[in-house]
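FW: tagging you since you asked about this chain on Friday. Here's the raw sequence from the shared folder, copied in full. Didn't touch anything.
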Amino acid sequence: MHHPLATDDPSTPPARDLCSPGTAADARDFARSFADLLHPAPAARTTQNLLLLVSELVTNALRHAGAVTALRLTADQDTIRIRVEDASPARPTERSPDLTGRDGGFGWPLVCALAREVTVGPRPGGGKIVQAALAR
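HL: got it, structure written out here
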């Protein structure tokens, strides 16, 4: 028997889920629960990459915008999409990673390396939407 988030049938609408995490740990728990409900289950590496992407995108929103307005996850047969919304219009910028570990700079390059597509756009009413697509 298939779960409602099953996506192996082309006629089945894509799986979707939404939350507003207060921490990166909350976002990872949400993403893991989402991945656990997908059928067929994503490969372990895909789930690990999903957790990393969600964690980095949410951490960036919390650190640089103060909060996450929404975290949306969707999946179809080929792709898992992550959408993080926040209230800041400032776009993510790549900067040199701080090798001392004090000032970060590793997250955005990691997001761009793991995702097959990353987009940043305005959010209706202000702020931005960062979306990342991960091969399923």
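FW: Residues 68 and 86 are 5 Å apart (CA to CA).
HL: agreed, and The chain has a mean pLDDT of 87.
FW: great, closing this out.
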